[in-house]
Amino acid sequence: MEDEAKAYKRLFPSGHIPTVLACIIEAGRILRKNTETDREDWITRRLYLRLVRLPTFRDGPLGIHLKPEIVNPKFDADTPSGEIDLLVSCGHGYEVYFPLEAKRLRVTYANGRLETGSDKYIKEGMMRFVTGQYAPFMEAGAMLGYVYDGNTVEARTDIDRFVQSHAVTLRLLTPEKLSRSQILKDMPVDETLHSLETRIFTIYHVFLAV
Fold first, then answer.
1. Do residues 124 and 145 touch, judged by C-beta distance below 8 A?
2. Which CATH class is domain 2-209?
3. Contact criterion met (CB below 8 Å) for 127 and 170
4. pLDDT above 60 (res 1)
């Protein structure tokens, strides 16, 4: 993997990341579920339809892509590395992108049971960045939490608790918890830092009340 990574030294320009996250927050303000148990894929499609109409993605050079396959780094592979919910390209080639994975949080079912979604957020979201499945050559990505009961404060607390309890598995760097990011000082964006084999990877966290 390390030898292959050397062929892709160009990174997604960090200067674009605040713009991408600001667009997500802007579009997310009017993003709503249609039922109490909408699938996250349906919410993501609605988010995508709002994002493609924003000038940032409508006019380029940034492009937003829905459910693209992640190219497998093995040249003879028969399957992709995975499928990411949203991917932002910047015109620097197919390996240079900013990936975003979304998960449902705090879903209430008809029987009154509340599912926080924290476990899937960690194991089926963040860990796929940590293992390199979703961004094998990049240094940053984002997690989107669709908060179904609208309580983003409690959702953040839930995720932070799980993140801290899985600090070793997530290969967290100090402070080993969700920390308010300075990338957008006036907007609610958190971040975690992860020590991977060949790089430090930043995951940004955005919680959207839907």
1. no
2. alpha beta
3. yes
4. no
Which residues 6+ apart lie within 8 Å of 158 measured at CB?
105, 106, 116, 117, 118
- 64, HSE (Cβ side, Cα atoms, 13 Å): 26
Separation between Cα atoms, residue 187 and residue 109, nearest integer Å: 30
Query: Which among 122, 129, 197 has a CA at the least distance from the CA of 164?
Result: 122
Half-sphere exposure of 30 (CA within 13 A, CB side): 8
The structure tokens listed for 47 are 């988010």
User: What does the pLDDT average to over 191-209?
Assistant: 96
146-183 pLDDT, tens digit per residue, is 999 999 999 999 999 999 999 999 999 999 999 999 99
pLDDT in tens, 43-98: 999 999 999 999 999 998 999 999 998 877 777 776 767 789 999 999 998 889 99
pTM score, whole prediction: 0.93
For residue 63, with 0-12 CB atoms within 10 Å meaning exposed, 13-18 middle and 19 or more buried, which class applies?
middle
